[in-house]
Specification:
By secondary structure, this protein is mainly β. The protein is built from 10 helices and 41 strands.
Length: about 900
Amino acid sequence: MKYEGLISRGAIAVALLYSMPVLAQDVAPQAVAGAPDQTIIVTGTRRTDRTVAESPTPIDVYSGEELQKMGVADMNQAIQNLVPSFSVARYAIGDGSSFVRPPNLRGLAPDQTLVLINGKRMHRSALVQIGANAQSAGAHSADLAQIPSIAVKRFEVLRDGASAQYGSDAIAGVINMALRDDTDGISGYARYGQYYRGDGDDYQVALNGGFKLGDNGFINISGEYVNAGKTSRGVTRPGALELSQEQPDIGVPALAQRYGNPKMESYRFFVNGGFDLGDDSSIYYFGNYGHSFQEESFNYRQSVNSANFGLNGIFNDYFTDFDNTTPGIQTGSAGGNVYAPNGYDPATRDYTQVSTCSDPLVQNWSCVYSGGFTPIFFGKIDDISGTVGYKGTFGFGLNYDVSGSYGQSTLKYTMNGTMNPSLGISSPTEFYLGKLEQRETVFNADFSYPWEVGFASPITIAFGGQYFRESYELGLGDPASYAIGSYTGNLVFHQDGTPVLNADGSQLSVALPVGANGFPGYGPAIAGESSRNSKGLYVSVEGDVTEQLSFGFAGRYEHLSDFGNATTGKATARYAIVPDVFAIRGTVSTGFRAPTPGQTNTSSIATTFNPGNPNAIEFMTLPVASPVAQYLGAVPLSPEESVSFSGGAVFTPAPGASLTIDYYNIKVKDRIGTTGSRVITDAQRPELQALGLANYATVNEVQFLTNAFDTRTQGIDVVGSYRLATEGMGTFNTTLAFNYNKTKVIRVGIDPETGSPIISDTRIQQLQNTLPKTRVILTENWSSGPLSIMGRVNWYGKYKVFDDGTGANGESYVQQSFGSEFVFDFEASYQLNDAFTLSAGVQNLFSNYPDKFDNRAGGLGPVYASTGGRFTGDIYPDVSPFGFNGGFWYARVGFKF
């Protein structure tokens, strides 16, 4: 941490004092000109005249222009810079989670936030999150990165439960992206930037064109191209460094593995359009296509022993004689006996030397990868969607909107620079690992009617229905990526028939890992497709009883083909104690979220490391329906259920100035997440083999998804802003946003077979402490004539990182606390003429980094003096809420014709 606590507290105090005279509002002042609290909202209400200031629920509104005033292309990062209760991490080695970043709203899971585009449900990503933090592990949510900023007219963030209005997923809130519909020509920008360290070169080109189609139609098309270079913020692994010093000629890479952002190239397109048919009716359409290709580094595998670090188990000898009759490579199968030369002794085998593979009976992967190897993992994402609708108003005042949508996300994995160890040295070194695919079809029919009953406003009665079908597919990889080769599960004998013994007297066995090493491909045992459908009906009533009192009620019934029926409800109220100046508001709601087919069937295998242990482990995530998961205590998933309530106040003392304060309390029952690690013992392996687990001999730890815990999340949101237009000093837009958020695990299920908690103590601590509890954002936008300047300060509170291990006081986990931090952003723009604008800016101006890992007792070390990093080469936590790459500068040219 770069600043001491006294400075941190003092700066926050200055920010608060600075903002108090101007007070605040729910919508960022830079989002709209004039009186932003009078902006009409469309999220969380069926009324057509509801403004931000009048909303009974907390909601933020931001313009598309504000999203573009940043040096980032990722929509997740852009939203985090604006909304303090929204958080997203950058995973350095997170398998698919490095490619599809999972965000958290109000500290809840990513799939507990519903994402809408033009008010319609956005489809989920193909990825079920496995490599992410505890809040996100097991989640299956939309991929916000598929939405380019230039396509967005504005977006709204409803910070309140809305399952009764929108259906499953809307437990934490709703993010609604409204696409651009302007028709005034072509605009865009080109941006280049890089990190202060000189890496991560980032190119972005974005274009938007809006055109009229005849007298009654329009089309708006947006496109974006991004090419982002990889970064490296780790150090080489100590074992690789030592081996390179002892044997400089065997080809140990200078940086054994990279810890940083993935390399990424993407292009994304959005279209939005419609035709006015007259008689108060119109058709509309919108959709997207996105493609990205990303690359990340996996963990390094050491080829031979060095003085203090051992080789990876892949580089143990294996034996090719299966019938002990003819010397040489024989046909055999996994689990068969193999025969070594009579003089072979594992106790005296010199594993400090690279093998030549000259003996056909004894083979070793070090003759292929003499200096060790680091698998390179690739993810290709193709994302497509389309919506067509018809809306209007009947002559008697009934509004209608009927639409159909289709969305599909496909994620294909490949990997090179590795092998399938169980196939022996003839194995391929490049693999297609298979694909994940999510497909969704949605039909909506929505109706509303403003009923005049003599109240201060018409009572808006809304009702409608939805049909929703989703399918999830795990597609086969190439056969070599999942094959169970001959060289695993083999007991080793000498050619004279005597067993080959280890130094401890046990018989030597060959247990080379199965499948492409680093990420085995999807094989027939787990590949396949599953689907479900749901049907929902809803009704809502809202209106103003008097000029001071507003109310709203909503109810929803859904039937899911795999989980049965669910009913949710919501009530809202707002009372203006002093009209147009001070009001109080509150909501209470129930919600639910059903497990997706993807969550029910997800599976993966990864190579990872536990703190303090330099030995690689094979870590497996199993589908809950698999026999092995059930043997280890898994039970079928069930829907999550929530009860939430909020209460707050809205203060608008002057035009352009307001302050909102909202408390929220969200209880989630049967929350879905991962169990944490289940260590596999040798005594369990025969049963795993009998249950058909291909890698029964090599798997070390297992996890699976579970409902077995409840959480309560409480917090406070404060959002304030002021817009001041002066005669000679320009216009000032000031925003202060504060969030305090705390999650507590209030129930843990017990495994009836073992009597032990289903989720580990480590996982409980991760759920409660990984995210900062406090965050503050202070933003100032100033403009005068052609010049505009934006300054933003983000303050992140402290957080803790936990992992499995033995703590300083005997706990079943190790931990380290990471301090609070300031991050400053700055951008200046100058409009040269009506066509061109030049901008330059920085993200993380002072290049602040999170605290480093250290060697405290019961911590996440050891940190090696030879490298300054842990065994895996990392020096910063990748769950850091503001990243670990340091400062980033950029320049941008904007244009409009």
